[in-house]
Amino acid sequence: MGLRLLDARARSRAELAEAMAKKAVPDDIIDEVLERFESVGLVDDAQFASLWVEGQQRRMKSGRVLRQELRRKGVDDDVISAALQETSDDADYTAALAFAAKRARSMTGLAPEVRYRRLAGALARRGFSSGLCHRVVHEVTDEGEEFDDPDRG
Asked: How confident is the model at residue 9, as a pLDDT?
């Protein structure tokens, strides 16, 4: 059962333990299986967290949201912090700017205050701080420049 779950995508140790517990697998068997998976490299929460952060950053999510998602998956806070430290210092800014620029293209016909409100709301729902939301929305709506300039930020 655990191998089938891992075949679909990488999973945390806690996710696998929870899935096996739902199938009424005894706790001692769960522990034994997970220890074996770890020893052969099939389960590694640090690698899982790093891959999760990398993959979800492409989906333009904030570090705060990534931390929450990994906590829900049962990853230890120290492991989460280490995975998030691997990202660049301006990863949230870059993700927020890319997301806002993409969204703003579909809002060109809206009044400026409506566009601002919708962009800020969309960024906030992705977990970006209010200060970063304001900064990015201001850049996207007021400057009107191309946002793929690597010298920004």
From this structure: 83
